[in-house]
Structures are given as structure tokens and as C-alpha cells.
Amino acid sequence: MDTPARLLALLSLLQSRPSWSGTELAERLGVTTRTIRADIDRLRNLDYPVEADRGATGGYRLGSGGKLPPLLLDDAEAVAVAIGLRAGRAVAGLEEVSDRALAKLEQVLPARLRPAVEALAAAVEHAPENTGTDAPDPEVDPDVLRAVATAIHHTEQFRFDYAGEELPRLVEPYRLLSWQRRWYLVARDPATGEWDVHRADRVTPRMRTHRRFAPTPLAGGDYTAFLMRRAASSGWNVHARLRVDAPAEDVLARINPAVGVVEAVDAGTSVLVTGADSLETVAAYIGMLGMDFTVESPPELRPLLRVLARRYADA
């Protein structure tokens, strides 16, 4: 390689993993360790922050700051990024930014890769994702996701307005999870110590607090399982409480943990608290329990069930 090509290859290696020894870099590029040291100095003179640790376990790594290195992707990585950005267009709220990022990527793709990416664009389509409800997907502002992720990364309290509430919330943020085309924040209230799940599409961030907190472990440590349990009782647009003529263990055996929370009333009766994005969806799905039930709330669910009952009977 000539020097410019070798510098680009060196940058690509430094981006691919946290640390490299001088010997490893020399072997990968087919040069001496003395040449590697000279190339590192050249990169530093170009304002790329290459850091070095001395000693037997030392090595080189690309630090933060300075110039933004060129995005160096191999052929498979470039195609994977293009496919991922096209998939991002299926997420409500991210279509426009995904299109912009994809346009920038396609503009700088090498000529040999463009046919593959264009072929994928012409041949791949996404079938509808939202097939379990009649409600549209909620749109999430990418700036909201960025604000939440920043607070989580810096372990600082997060203040935000929540749709439908007058007063802002202050929480300790722990995880941002994506599930069924929705984004959720798992957080802890520092005043009460209670854990909760917040829908990201209902969050409007306030100014950063820059107030650090000492993380508190979640009981069980499984944020995804906690989200699914919590979403069943509070994470949907509408909720229903049903008295089921069956033992709690039988009801649990019929549902996904994310579908509802089950409580035993007695040996042969239980209560199921479930939810969805619309009462029509609740009405359609609770018949799949295959068990007799009584609607305790909300009363608006009852006329929808009567309509469905008539339609099934007429059929």
C-alpha cells in the first residue's frame, strides 16, 4: 500500500475494535512496527485522537474528539447498514430520518456496491407490521429517544412532561426498550423508590438535569420481563378488568405474560387485567381465552362484545 491507503486501512482497523497492539497492526498491514508508529504520528498530525498505552498489555485505540474519522465499512457492512436503514422506515416517526441517512450512504457507496444496494431496494418490501390492532402505530420523535438514551448513558435523572399529566415527572432512567413497534423507558422514581414503565411516544423531555444518581438494582434484574409485565397493566391506551371462571394457573397457561396480569380470587375464579390500543382489539382477543368471563370494567367494552356476539351468531 502507499501511505494514504495504509492510513485509511489503519483507521479502519482502529474503528473495528477498542484496542490493537502495535504488533497486531503491523501484521495486518504487512509493515513493521516502526512504520505503524510513524503512521500513528501522521494520524495525530491530522487531528485524529489516537491514544496509546505503554507496557506489555498496552496498545493503540481511537479516542473521542478531534476530527470525525471517515466511515470505513467493508462490503458486507455497507449492505447491512443500507438494509437496516430501510427497515427503520417501517418504524413510525423514523421514516424521514432513515430516508435522509440512507440517501447520504448511497451517495458515497463505491460503484461496485451500488448494484447490490439498488437490487435490494427494488426487490425488498416490508409487509405491514401492525396486524394485531386497529389503532395506528404511535410516532416517536428521534430527539426523544436521543434525550432518554443520553440520560441513561450519563446516569443522570431525567425530567419530562408526560401526556395527560399537568406536572412533570422526575425519574432515574435505566433502560430504553423497543417492543411491538413501541419504545418504552424503564425508570425508578427517586422519591418513592417505585419502578415504572413510560411510553416514549408520550414523553416530552425537559432540560437536562445534569444530576447524577447511584444506580439501584432492579429486583430480578430482567428489564424486558419487567416491561412486559408492566405493559400488560399500564402500558396500553385502554385497559380492561375481567372476572374469569377459571383458576389463575389455567388463565396464565393461555396467555403471554405481556397480555395481562392474573390474580386468583378463589380456587375456581380469577381476575385478568389486560390492555390494548383500542377496546375493539380487547373485544376481539379475549374470546381467544376459551373461558367464560364477566366484564368488570370498563363499561364501554360490553356493547362491543354484544356486537361481536351478534356477528358470530349470525355467521
Automatic annotation (TrEMBL):
<dbReference type="InterPro" id="IPR051534">
    <property type="entry name" value="CBASS_pafABC_assoc_protein"/>
</dbReference>
<keyword id="KW-0805">Transcription regulation</keyword>
<dbReference type="InterPro" id="IPR028349">
    <property type="entry name" value="PafC-like"/>
</dbReference>
<dbReference type="InterPro" id="IPR013196">
    <property type="entry name" value="HTH_11"/>
</dbReference>
<protein>
    <submittedName>
        <fullName>Helix-turn-helix transcriptional regulator</fullName>
    </submittedName>
</protein>
<keyword id="KW-0804">Transcription</keyword>
<dbReference type="InterPro" id="IPR001034">
    <property type="entry name" value="DeoR_HTH"/>
</dbReference>
<dbReference type="Pfam" id="PF13280">
    <property type="entry name" value="WYL"/>
</dbReference>
<dbReference type="InterPro" id="IPR026881">
    <property type="entry name" value="WYL_dom"/>
</dbReference>
<feature type="domain" description="HTH deoR-type">
    <location>
        <begin position="3"/>
        <end position="69"/>
    </location>
</feature>
<dbReference type="InterPro" id="IPR036390">
    <property type="entry name" value="WH_DNA-bd_sf"/>
</dbReference>
<dbReference type="Pfam" id="PF08279">
    <property type="entry name" value="HTH_11"/>
</dbReference>
<dbReference type="InterPro" id="IPR057727">
    <property type="entry name" value="WCX_dom"/>
</dbReference>
<dbReference type="Pfam" id="PF25583">
    <property type="entry name" value="WCX"/>
</dbReference>
<keyword id="KW-0238">DNA-binding</keyword>
<dbReference type="InterPro" id="IPR018356">
    <property type="entry name" value="Tscrpt_reg_HTH_DeoR_CS"/>
</dbReference>
<dbReference type="InterPro" id="IPR036388">
    <property type="entry name" value="WH-like_DNA-bd_sf"/>
</dbReference>
